[in-house]
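User: I'm putting together notes for a lab meeting next week and I want to include a structural view of one of the chains we've been expressing. I don't have a solved structure, so I'd like a prediction I can at least talk through. The sequence is below, exactly as it appears in our construct file.
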Amino acid sequence: MLEFLERTTLLREEDLMPDEKILMDMFQSWYIELKSFIMMGILLLFSFLFIVMAILTPNLKIGPISLSPLIFLGLAFFIIIAILIIAVSVILHHYSTRYYITSDRVLARRGLFTKNVEGVPYSKIQDIELRKSFYESIADIGDILIDVAGTSGVELSIDNVRDPEKPYRLILEKMRGKKDNSGV
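Assistant: Thanks for the context. Below is the predicted structure for the 184-residue chain, given as structure tokens.
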């Protein structure tokens, strides 16, 4: 299944310019999904607690209310279904965006069931910025922001990628090469 999702976001030959080669491709880091994984772990503990309560308490009475083991098993089942839904959404979110650095431009391909490819040629890049928060530095992830001349704000953002210095340096190298070749 994961291999299918990974293949879904591959660029095809028709997405590339003639003689354009893919130099690097990246997904967002799993680190950004840490909150989701923690939440799934907490929900799993609650599910386990409800299963234990269903086994150990044949008929729990709290005042006038009587709780049967089926109620606890139902709650555990509901939580497990919620965990599965969260897990599927986290996986789909992770594989829905893929970034490419090619010989001619920087691309972002978004969507699993739809396809949206944004690209910025190196010759049009005005500025490039690498951003890492304190926590991102610890996890060695960061964002690369690409600004294009003639637009306000960031044209393309490469978000939450592992080892962001590597693609950042590659983009800078390619920008310098394109400017040297254009006679600037």
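A couple of points you could mention at the meeting. The chain has a mean pLDDT of 88. Strands lie at 22-27, 60-62, 65-67, 97-102, 105-110, 116-121, 125-131, 141-148, 156-162.

User: Perfect, that's what I needed.
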